[in-house]
Amino acid sequence: MTLSRSYQDEIGSEREYELIVILKPDSTKENIQVLTKRLLEMVDKNSGKVLNIENWGRRNLAYEIAKSKKGIYLYFRLLGYYELIPEVERLLRMIEKVVRYQTILVDENVDPTARPDQVDEAMLDAISEIHTAVYNEETDENSEKNSDDDNDFEDEEEADFEEDEDKE
Description:
This protein has helices spanning about 30-45, 85-95, 120-125, 135-165, and strands at about 15-25, 50-65, 70-80, 100-110. Strand 2 and strand 3 form a beta hairpin. It is of the alpha+beta class.
């Protein structure tokens, strides 16, 4: 397949994109592996490359989507020609576990040799693990201490303000 270029692009340059995918919260490790594998194949087929993959874990959604209040967030950083993104988004629309996705153009006219691949087999295994936010008692205690300190500071300010009123 011959790649066409946009008239805006310089010769020999590509575009850098960020892609965030939200999966259904009941997605398994195998679902995530299948999605990443298919996405990597699609990017490779369209002469692009994946620079970075991250699993942000299971998080609360801003609003309920498909009767779910949570979702599994995946982050991809892609490098390719402008034709890459419509193909990737078409693939994501066909996968049932994908609830939402968003693609953002980060940079145009990027030299492909300046952005090395960072994706390896260990990263692909790590992305398939599903993380959840863990409640940490120590951070909660620290936040209470900080809020008490803030209240003490406000009390001092109020005392200074009352002294200034008495002088007048």
